[in-house]
Amino acid sequence: MSDPNQTAQETTLERLAPGATGRVVRVQGDDVVAKRLTDLGLWPGTEVVVVRRAPFGDPTQYALRGFRLALRRDEAARVVVATPSAPAAAA
Amino acid sequence: MTASAPQPQSPAAPARVLVALAGRQNAGKTSLLMHLTGSAQRPVNFAGSSVERCESSVRVGATELRAVDLPGIASLSAVSRDEEVALGYLRGEAGEVPDVLCAVVDAAKLSVELHLLDALVTLGRPIVVALNKNDVAEREGRPVDAARLSELLGMPVVETNALACRGIDALRQALVAAAGAPPAPALTDTPDALAQAALRPVPPSPRGLTDRLDAVLLHRVWGLPILALLVLGIFQAIFTGADPFMGLIEDGQGWLTGLVEDALEPGALRSFLVDGLIGGVGSIVIFLPQIVLLMTLVSLLEASGYMARAAFLLDRVLSRVGLNGRSFVPLVSSFACAVPGILSTRIIDNERDRIATIVVAPLMSCSARLPVYVVLIGAFFPVAWAGVVLFGIYLLGILTAALVAWALKLTVLRGGHSLLMMELPVYQRPSLKVVRAQVWGAARDFMVLAGTIIFGTAIVIWLLSYYPRPAEIHDRYEAQRTTLVAPQADDEAATAAHDQALAELDAAERAAYLEQSWLARGGKAIQPVFAPAGFDWRITVGILAAFPARELIVPTMGILYSLGDVDPGDYDVDSLEASAAGEGDGLRDKLRGAVHPDGTRVFSPLVALALMVFFALCSQCAATLGAIRRETRSWKWPTFTFVYMTAFAWLMAVLVYQVGSAAGLG
Lengths: 91, 666
Known about the structure:
The structure holds two protein chains of two kinds.
Chain A: E1 8-12, E2 21-27, H1 32-39, E3 47-53, E4 60-64, E5 67-71, H2 73-76, E6 79-84, H3 87-90
Chain B: E1 16-23, H1 29-37, E2 42-45, E3 52-60, E4 63-69, H2 81-90, E5 100-106, H3 110-120, E6 127-132, H4 134-139, H5 146-153, E7 157-159, H6 168-178, H7 191-198, H8 209-217, H9 223-241, H10 243-263, H11 268-285, H12 288-304, H13 306-320, H14 328-333, H15 338-343, H16 351-360, H17 370-380, H18 383-410, E8 422-424, H19 432-466, H20 471-483, H21 492-515, H22 518-530, H23 537-545, H24 553-560, H25 575-580, H26 586-593, H27 605-617, H28 622-632, H29 636-662
Parallel strand pairs in B: 1-4, 1-5, 5-6, 6-7
Antiparallel strand pairs in B: 2-3, 3-4
Helix pairs in contact in B: 3-7, 5-7, 9-12, 10-11, 11-19, 12-19, 16-18, 17-18, 17-26, 17-27, 18-27, 19-28, 20-21, 22-23, 23-24, 27-29, 28-29
């Protein structure tokens, strides 16, 4: 989906605003949380769309691999994603 | 596959095949099992844990196919207790090794499912893939080609649809045929690549039903009001919908009581049958309509996919106080009865949050407390205040629960991960078979647990309240009866007066017996403890007598205030209006008129309020403690719950009475 010529910017999943898309680069840590995130489908290369935040701002609904996942802010913060940067910045 | 042709059976079809259903949560295992074996499942606890597995069996030709449904797993490394148990079973640690694994796979998210399958092949068993929910995948524009997937994986793949009963027989045959087959081969490529290759491309469909529903149900503004309306609807159904059935049960109880009273002379046996047996069983069965109704609504919402949304909407609020979005269902259920509420905490996969939910669930004001509130509010508060006081008492329970959960998070239950990471499943039409099985299971659990415990304590309380029976009391009241002048047969007014005098003597005699019973002696002995809350010995005895089930304080106080039989079932919310309309009510009048030996009134609105606060917060319910014991597998948490609730209830009751008295409200 993203143009391979564009440089990607790395950030963490919880920083993306609803409507934004990111591609998983890695999941930080090697504890239960990281393991579970990977088991849920967040392994490198996975495209994740931020759908909406809950009424109190947390958790957030994501769409990936054809299903819907709710993650808390501190859970999503473990997921490093690449977002396509603005074309001007790429030039 | 032709259904008419006889299925090829190998000459030596095995006599028994044990199949374990393995898959992620929401993959549809439970529903599939129910259709696979066609019979109601029998839940079995895994040894040494509260985790349940369901199993049932079916004959396929000459073979008995036994299928075991395991808790959902996401990988072969366990995060929750449920997963640990499921994995232990798959590895054969439960003493039996499954012949075949049935990997239940949700077609709509094939790549993640293949990630798990990749791990399952390392168990070295033959695997049959049940490809479930392909209709959902089709609607989302990504249906899976079952034949192609089977080719790619090198394992049998059977397309199933539990709701439409499709592919069930083919799956049975495939499972039997796989017994004794070589272990499933390792995946030949990455899950992503395999999933991509197995997809049958179709034109992308318009935005699905689930996304359109979520846009409304999870809306930042509308999501919570819709949830609030749903909860209100559930309450309305529990408290009004169950009413006619509860009336029927009461009528039945009254009819049985009448039968026994007609057949037997007054005495220990009759009292045991009426007060101990019929009363004890009745106090359990009376809650069954509410529980059946509640569990039906909850499991419909659960099966439709909405409960995960409720957890999503409320997770923030609940996690702030140390609970979890998933705590919502158990807490709402506990407003009807804490027993099904505590049993339903199994959906919380985080042990810490689960314990916190179990420990605070009894603080939700259950329907057994309602008659107590209604009697006292009707007797001591003006009707304009009735609703406010009732609401305040419910609110007190909720706020206390938040406070306790928060305190637990900072102390006893500190540390550990609190995870949400929850899938929001596709909305679907609930399988009535599954709902029926869940409701039946909840009703059975309640009857077995509450039945044995409430019944046992009811018998003990009856014994303590019936004995001893000194002849001196009997003689005294017999003497008084003989002094009553028998009226002329044709004098109606005199006959009525005579009957009433006899009834008053009977009631006074019952009160005299109860007053010197073991139970009352105990109540008098511990009364000093409750004196700072303004409770006299009769209230204290009522509190003791309420231990089998809270509403029993009402009939006990009825006897102690010399009123004869009082039925707590008469005190529903509507009776508040009747009392406001000035209709006579025996128990309320007696409570208002009750005096201490020195002539001062026992009850004031302040004492009534202190008693309601005590009942809102105390843990006067043997069945709830039994449920906690069962679900936590230790005596630690029921003991903790009893101690903290009783201590806190006492403290709050004393606070209300002392502060109120000091402010001159007594």
